[in-house]
Amino acid sequence: MYRDLKWKIPLILAVVLGSVLLAYPLKEKISLGLDLQGGMHLLLEVKVEKAVEASLERLADDIKRDIFDDDLELDRIKAIYEDRRVNVRMVDKLDLPPVKKILDDYPFFSLVSEDSDGLGLVYQLSADHVEQIEQNAVSQGLETIRNRVDQFGVSEPTIQVQGERRILVQLPGIKDPERAINLIGKTARLEFKLLDEEHSLEQALSGNVPEDSEILYQRVVDKETGAVTKEPFLIRKRTVLTGETLTGAEVRFDSDFNEPYVSLTFNSVGAMIFQQVTRENIKKRLAIVLDGNVYSAPVIQDEIAGGRAQITGGFTSAEARDLAIVLRAGALPAPVVILENRTVGPSLGKDSIDKGFTSIIYGSLLVVVFIIFYYRWSGVIAVTALFLNIVLLAGALAYFGAALTLPGIAGIILTVGMAIDANVLIFERIREEVRIGKTVRAAIDAGFSKAFRTIVDANITTFIAAVVLFQFGTGPIKGFAITLCIGIAASMFTAVFVSRTIFDATMSQRKLDKLSI
Amino acid sequence: MKIINSDTHFDFMGKIKMTMTISGLVILIGLGSVALSGGLKYGIDFAGGTLIQLQFKTPPDIEVIRDGLKTISLGESTIQEFGSKRDILIRIQRSEEKLEAVGSKVRNSLGGKFNKEDITIERVEMVGPKVGRDLREKALLSILYAIIGIVIYISWRFELQYAVAAIIALVHDVLVTLGAFSILDKEFTLVIIAAFLAIIGYSLNDTIVVFDRIRENLRRRGKNTLVQSVNASINQTLSRTLLTSGTTLMVVVALFFFGGEIIHDFSFALLVGILVGTYSSIFIASAFLVYWDSRH
User: Chain A: residue nearest B167 by CA?
Assistant: First the structure.
């Protein structure tokens, strides 16, 4: 009669053993969510339109060069950001056809209109190309951020694209979240630009800025007082060299003042341009601009060969090291902004774990004592099933690699409360059957089979809610949903299958006249 | 051992009028409170904003913190104790997209008044308005999809009127809990939405157990009226209902008292939801079945 115990008991033992192997030791096998181990969750948005603008600007520059190369007389060329267009204006009407020919080499530009005076052309960047630029900005941004994080040294970071323009960065256990934010988010666009020394800075400051120049500032920190002042510079818009040609960036210390600075090395192309620029501009000032801020603007004393330069700027050594990291990893193709930041310190995380487990233990103890008191021997079976439920839950969490979060712990607690429900349903049914005079065997059979359908219906509806929560939830909520899902599935196995097997096994040993329930 | 007699014959359906009135009043008061306070009180997850949790070595004076914060013009902020006198929670309506680290900015602003070393930044949460809007949409959708999924399942397993009754009961539970949150001036966050979905799941679980028995009893009801069958079903499942609610409440109470500040509101929502869920499966869901039958 109890022949199927021969496969049921080994099956149960195998499942339990498997779970134990998966989850032991707990500390290594179950990963903790950021809210429990401390860490930083950052959701960034890539400002892709800035990458499109930069690209438009670059293309306009290229076209300008081609026009000059063909000895045509250009009036001006202007990038119109909003429409992703460029407006090319010539001095002579007859120059338009050759300009059109030049533009034929730029397949992603199409002619949309001609200026009414017959001197200008308007070209538009194709939607496909814009999309390409935007996609590149996101994927390159991701790569760059990954490089930076790798160099910063964080164990098991998560860095991934979310949606179209968002990048998710999760840094578990990070000690100094604020430094990490600066490191990750810095655009790190390095540019070398000549100062505009032909026009007066005073006039520019009063609002009369020359067309080809702009005012940029240098942040000056007074060593004594710590006060920050901003020093303006009139700088040419044209960039002579960018950080793209960098091959290295390292922290060095000034031998006189022991002040840290960042030493740069260029590749051969960069070195050549740098040499040419310094040769042609001796005694002029060259500004080193990072993300629109002037770091220094030394006077070029002599032609510089060999492709080396340095950035000074009153850094602390940590600042210099971080700057070297971002320069090595390269610039972000477009700036990023923070959409969401959730940072939990390690002590709060530990506190949450302690409190979570305290409540699990107290809550479970209450339930265990109550159930054993209420159902006696059958109660012990229910509690055994409950215990196995938690073991399976731990095994499944380890197997799926799901991180345990604080809401996840709440999910476990809720599972403990609800898993007992299946046994309560069964036991109450058995009691009813016993009351109407059935034998122990028949009562157990009827109790299990009648309660089974109810248990399935009740659990599946809760399961639906949990799955939806998993699909739509973010972060910690997912942790709650997954523990609830696994807990429900596990409770179907333990409360129904395991406790039934234990009943059967007991009955196979001796004939019971009275059930302890 | 038994808590209640196995052979009860309470006339639950005879009390419907009274319970409906009570439920209606409770929901009205709750919704009234929501209306009076100008809508639900969203936490930063949904409204956007910044939240900073600081721990001080010794209990600080909140007024001194307030003065310190004024120096860095963060806009409107609220400062409150969080669990203990040493833990302070600062909420700022504005969210900063820039890469400036708001946590250290706040700590620095307090530098003159406290020893900076004595202040630990425990938690910083910043949610931009865009993400807040996304999360709000997602939360609403998740509740909606959960309800749709459940209606489909119950209609398939039972009949349509059971599904409708179950949904009315769970909407009732959510509304009552919502009202309790509004009256107690608690905030809606992502975690609370998770609690609401758990309540939905629990409420259904409870309702379905009763329905299952009603369906079973109706198959062999003989001369019994629907009301008699429903009453009998509720009585037969009564001890199970109380036991399960009891054990679940035990753990939720443990969570409420020992789980810590961060999930305090979460466990509160569950506490209310489970009590109301138990009540509604008897007095709302089953009552609706009787009502439906009287109309058809």
Answer: A461
Q: Choose among A414, A316, A338: nearest CA to A45.
A: A338
Best residue of A322, A372, A472 to probe chain B, by most B CBs closer than 10 Å: A472
**CA angle centred on A80, ends A75 and A84, rounded to 5°:** 125
Answer whether A367 sits within 8 Å of B250, measured CB to CB. Answer: yes
Chain B residues with beta carbon closer than 8 angstroms to that of A476? 190-191
CATH topology for B49-127 is Alpha-Beta Plaits (3.30.70)
Phi-psi region of B10 (alpha: psi -120 to 50; beta: other; left: phi over 0): beta
Nearest chain A Cα distance for residue B103, angstroms: 8
* CATH code for the domain in which residue A204 is found: 3.30.1360.200
Instruction: Count Cβ–Cβ pairs < 8 Å, chain A vs chain B.
Output: 236
Please tell me which residue of chain B has the smallest CA distance to A184.
Answer: B99
Identify whether residues A28 and A117 lie together within a single domain: no
CA separation for the pair A424, A446 (Å, rounded): 14
Position B75 scores a pLDDT of: 75
Between CA B235 and CA B278 the distance in angstroms is: 13
* Inter-chain CB proximity B201 and A461 less than 8 Å: yes
CATH of the domain at A65: 3.30.70
pLDDT tens per residue across span A187-238: 888 899 999 988 889 888 988 888 888 999 998 877 666 677 889 999 998 8
**Local structure of A293: helix, strand or coil:** strand
Same domain, A326 and A225: yes
Report the alpha-carbon distance of residue B244 to residue A423 in Å, rounded: 10
pLDDT over 70 (residue B237): yes
Say how far apart CA B61 and CA B47 lie, in whole Å.
Answer: 28
Among A358, A407, A453, select the one facing B258 at the smallest CB separation: A358
Nearest Cα of chain B lies from the Cα of A220 at a distance, in angstroms, of: 18
Within a domain: residue A427?
Answer: yes
- B138 and chain A in contact, CB less than 8 A: yes
Q: Do A314 and A422 belong to one domain?
A: no
* Residue A140, domain member (yes or no): no
Whether this prediction's pTM lies above 0.90 is answered by no
CATH of the domain spanning B12-42+131-295, picked from 1.10.10.10, 3.40.630.10, 2.60.40.1080, 1.20.1640.10 = 1.20.1640.10
Please state the ipTM of this predicted complex. 0.85
